[in-house]
Amino acid sequence: MANKASHEPITCVDFWCNEFGMRARIALREKRVPFEFVEEDLRVRQRSDLVRRMNPVHRSIPILIHGGRPVCGSINIVEYVDDVWGQEEEEAGHATRLLLPADPLERARARFWADFVDQKVYDAQTRFFTSRGEKKMAAMAELLGHLRRLEAVLGDKAFFGGDEFGFLDVALVPFSAMFYGYEQHGGVDMEAECPALVRWVKRCGERESVREVLPSGLDMYQIHKDFYQIE
Ligand SMILES: N[C@@H](CCC(=O)N[C@@H](CS)C(=O)NCC(=O)O)C(=O)O
């Protein structure tokens, strides 16, 4: 729903390679919402005063600051952006298209799978990066299992919600920036393992919002290699 608040200044506090934060920035770009990007370098251990003030509970990023008020949690931010700027787009003469599906059952399903990405995919990915040897390979196998499950959800659709890029695409596509890292660190061939998902990644990459936000696989690989001190 559009309201006056939607014209107040918008800031996104994030780090360029934060998969969670990419969701917020893709959603803002999808809605053509201008925002200021304030970088919080996650390589620095101590969180900034801004983050501690705006997200005292978790001290995590992304944080969307709208008219001085924080919205925390990436999925929460994507839904907020949909709520506030969905209607506004229509007023500006663009076709309104919400990221979340209109049908309640489809919305519930999209939220379920977004949560699956946060719980299962992120957890297996973190174990993959932080462990060595057999544990690392077991985490890779688990991660591929989760991605194949998502591939089955995608089916033969262009995007998770059907013909249009939407909520679950926004939630998952930042993780694709790690695919090159999975290949380099895990010795897997993503195209052979998850061909439909790789085709979907290419399709998503044709969107300006995704192109502008997603770092290259090589940059993501380098920063994770340094961060997790992987040889
Ligand atoms: N559920 C949160 C997770 C965000 C999160 O875990 N962010 C991490 C970076 S990946 C963070 O800010 N960590 C703070 C730190 O490392 O000090 C969301 O979706 O926004």
What descriptive keywords fit this protein?
single chain; alpha+beta; 11 helices; 4 strands; 57% helix; binds glutathione
Descriptive report:
The chain is globular, with a radius of gyration of 18 Å. It has helices at 19-30, 49-54, 74-91, 104-130, 133-154, 167-172, 179-186, 190-193, 195-205, 208-213, 217-227, and strands at 10-14, 36-39, 63-66, 69-72. It has a four-stranded mixed β-sheet with strand order 2-1-3-4, covered by helices on one side. It has 231 residues and is of the alpha+beta class. The mean pLDDT is 93. It is built from eleven helices and four strands. Helices cover 57% and strands 7% of the residues. It binds glutathione. Glutathione binds next to helix 3. The site of glutathione (GSH) has 11 residues, from helix 3. Its main location: cytoplasm. GO terms for molecular function: glutathione transferase activity.
Q: Helix/strand/pairing class, anyone?
A: alpha+beta
Strand order of the largest sheet: 2-1-3-4
Provide the succession of SSEs.
Answer: EHEHEEHHHHHHHHH
Q: How much is the average pLDDT? A: 93
**Low-pLDDT runs:** none
The helix tally amounts to 11
Give the amount of beta strand, in percent: 5-15%
> How would a textbook summarize the main sheet?
4 strands, mixed
How many strands in all?
A: 4
Rg: 18 Å
Shape designation: globular
Distance between the termini: 50 Å
Report the bound ligands by name, code or SMILES. glutathione
* Helix fraction by DSSP (H/I, runs of at least 4): 55-70%
